[in-house]
Structure formats: C-alpha cells, structure tokens
Amino acid sequence: MEGPLSHVVVPGTYDPVTRGHLDVIRRACRIAPQVTVAVAASKSKRGCGTWFSLEERVQMVREAWSEEGGETPIEVRPMEGLLVDFCREVGAHAVVKGLRAATDFEYELAQASLNARMSPGLESIYVMSAPEYGYVSSSVVREIATLGGDVSLLVTPSVAARLGR
Prior knowledge:
This protein is of the alpha/beta class. The protein has six helices and five strands.
C-alpha cells in the first residue's frame, strides 16, 4: 500500500470492552478516516471461551462508544476467522492495537510477523497505552466484577450493568 492510510481495523475480543479499548479506538480515529472495530469470535480464548456471546460483545462496543461520546463514526463488526482475511474483506490497509507492557509486545510481534507473511501489504500500527489504562484488561475487569468490586472507572456504565447481571 502506498500513500496515507484510509482505513484501519482495531481487532480484539472485547470481553468486555474497557475504557482502555475505547482509548485505542479513539486514537485509531486520529490515524485514519475510516475505522472498523473487529470483534473476534475467539471461541477458544484461554481454553474456556468468552464470557459474553459475539453478538453481545458487538453490541457492547457500539453502546460503549456511543456512551463515551465517540464523535467519529466507526463500524463495529463481528469477525470469524483470520484477521488478514477480515482486513481484505473490509478493504483495510492497517491494523491498530494498543500495547500495555513488554509481554504485549512479544505477543504482538509474533502476530504482526505472521500477518505480514500472509498479507504483505497490511501494516501493523501500535499505540502505547495511556497511563491511566496501562493496567486495564478485560480479564482484570471480569475478575474484579466476579469478586463484587467496583468496575466503574474501567468500563462504561452499560458494560458495568452487563457485568453486574
């Protein structure tokens, strides 16, 4: 691909979507005029599947983006299969992901290398996590919610309500 980026994908499981995820999506909107959020099926995530169904997670991202005042329109779509195939299907030129720590970097480097082999024109762009979200992950949010803790600083009200059910 040559020239400026016109379309990027922000992939993730979003189980549930956190304020950290929304920060990465917001920053992706500053990188390209068209942003598609790919909510991965991740049926075998960590060997136990996801807490929320794919449809629920797609809806949660849409609601959370609206709730947080996402000014830029984004498209939120379910994704099954390979990320490179999804990017080809939607016409995206790059993938944008957030990095929290060195462990994220190692994992993402391996993923970027594989994606580059399968789709040489697809760029991988990484943004460092904002300091206030560096410790936030979906698994931490789920654990706090399971133990009855307050997750209101980590997720939007609609997501917190779903976690409380």
